[in-house]
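Technical note accompanying the year-one report. For the benefit of new consortium partners, we illustrate the data format agreed upon in the data management plan: each record pairs a sequence with a structure-token string. No post-processing was applied to the example shown here.
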Amino acid sequence: MLIRIFAMIGAVGSVLSALFANCGYKGAKLGGFMMLRFLEYFFGSHLAYALTMLAATEAFIRFDKPQEKPSKFWDWHLHEVLHALCFYGRVDIEVTGRELIPKDSRYLMVSNHRSYFDPITFIVGLPEEELVYVSKAGNYKIPIAGRVMHKCGYMSLDRENNREALKTIKQATEYINRDYASVAIYPEGTRSHEDKLLPFHAGSFKIAQKAGVPVVCVAMRNTENIQHNFPLRKTKVYIDIIKVIDADYVKTHKTKETAEIARNAIQAKLDEEAQKEDRRSNK
């Protein structure tokens, strides 16, 4: 948001400067000239910001340096970039059930996984929530993005290596216990391209069990269409916060049981919305 505001102010200033400088154009030529100056400065500001942050990312972020807690600066930077991405990509995000999110404690947020855009829409749709994400190790190899994720305190999870997975669970638990942030994870472990959810990995819920916090269940819809529509067509994305599993239940029951409750709740919401869509289509 701030990037767009500053770019807009600068672009307007550039146009006014050109206008008062008596550029010699009149009528339609003057209008075209002012429009070109506006676009030049507006998009030039975005490009300058991107190049500056690219240089800073390469110069100051090192994977070999452990991130003890999330960096507020890099988290702000990530939010700004993703807000701009969704704005220009015409991604409209609707969130329901915000009132269910615990206000007096940290939590583990779990959701179905349909697209690479899932965490992006989470970050943009829930800007007031302090969340760090658990993601597969391969995502940290993405140029620039991987380094920023590291500074934001995001954690990689290697499900094929139990020892490394336990380290991630321990780190996520510490983030919650030290009140740095809540944690978000996709228990399916990979993207599901069908309406039917994949099995949930019960180990994902060990974070909530060990930290003694509730589990917030979220049903995500339509993110898989962003890549097909971006940026020419609008995409409506739905984030439905549907259930909170109480911390006492999480602590006293097996993670497999908690995972089953979460999966059933999310699947029921997806099925309900699919049936509504079918009824609308048949009218």
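Partners are asked to follow this layout when depositing records. DSSP finds ten helices and seven strands in the chain.
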